[in-house]
Amino acid sequence: MSKRRILDSQLTGIILKRIALEITENHGDMTNSAIIGLQPRGIRLASQLKEVVSEITGNKNILYGELDSTFYRDDFRKDNKILVPNSIQIDFLIENKTIIIVDDVLYTGRSVRSALNALGDFGRPRKIELMTLVDRTFNRELPIKPDYVGEEVDTRANDRVEVLWNENQTTPEVWIITE
Amino acid sequence: MNESLSVNHLLGIKDLTPTDIDLIFKTADNFKTVINRPIKRVPTLRDITIANVFFENSTRTRVSFEIAEKRLSADVINFSSASSSVSKGESLIDTVNNILAMKVDMVVMRHPAPGACIFLAKNTKTQVINAGDGTHEHPTQALLDAYSIREKTGSIAGKRVLIVGDIMHSRVAISNIFCLNKLGAEVMVCGPATLIPKHIEHLGVKVEYDLKKALQWCDVANMLRIQLERQDIKYFPSIREYTMQYGLNKRLLESIGKEIVVMHPGPINRGVEITSDVADHAQSIILDQVENGVAIRMAILYLLAMKTNANSIV
Asked: CB distance A122–B33 less than 8 Å?
């Protein structure tokens, strides 16, 4: 097994800032936009992104939510995997808003597909965008493409990408682990 | 934490571990948010067909199961003994096997014979959920009762729960006793001596024959219906006398000097075990119990379905 770090927490901090600026460029002061983190691993990144965007725009009331799409997944009862649901926290109307959904790693695209379906049950947003810290470009199984990407990496199917949050850091590090 | 149930069927609370119950509650929390949003349906069980087989009358349980199944996008078949070939002499196993031959994945059954669901689980190839079998168990009711107590009071461990009424004929009482004991609550039963089974204290419950004393002891009182349909002999002189001794009215509720939570599994006989002003009282959580019933049943269907693999069935 080999492990290598592709991003340290300082670099992910810079990347988050860059993405936050891109988001601000497209969304202005975020009055008609919302950031929604995908459970379980996207929420910490999403709330951090919200903080950075908030700092840049000066908008302290950016709409923020957490979405769980366990009940919409396509692998339920398919490969003996146990699917554990997480909580959902969306206490605003998504109708006619631009939603930025946030996940840490984009891989096959199946989680994002289920999240899009789950989000559809909350209303009809004007637009949905996708932000991901790591994009594993070669392994997509569905036609899904992110709008904001931290880092593109070329990985094989038996690699694992881990986003690690250290206790004393506000941004994560990213490792690739090859079995 | 264990993230999958230790059982493949839900036949009774007796077979569940405290971890199972905890898992059901946590999953139900998620489904409760689903059933409270504008679009109350998720597609999780869209490839599953469930038969609700009811050999005994039911409103709440049957509707609750049907709504839970539909909210999970399962296909639902309803079947009741009155309009079926059971009245032509077909056996239980034959009836269920014929339903299963039409590619049904799960059976929710209510039956007047105690143990009918266990029998079915042993003799057919399907997942069985007990919706009440005679005087044996009614696990989903006990789970939703405990879930409602947890929601109202924060926790179950250490709570004092009183069950009042026809303990002898009540599957709700037995399942509740098992469930509350497993979760660390203290349980007391109260009712006419003729309706309290002998040696019930061996199940780890206290017995009290004076309703006022029992109410003063408890944090939660679960008032049961007198099951006249299961009583072959007269166990007390008259309904009026039962009401005088064991009925809960507003004056009694307010005389005990503390606030308790009042529950009832339904159907209520207003004016018998509970008066209207108590049933509709602020301390009563009877309708919360009904709402929670859907979330609990969705959690059970979800967790049991997860034990099967769609690929192995095809």
From this structure: no
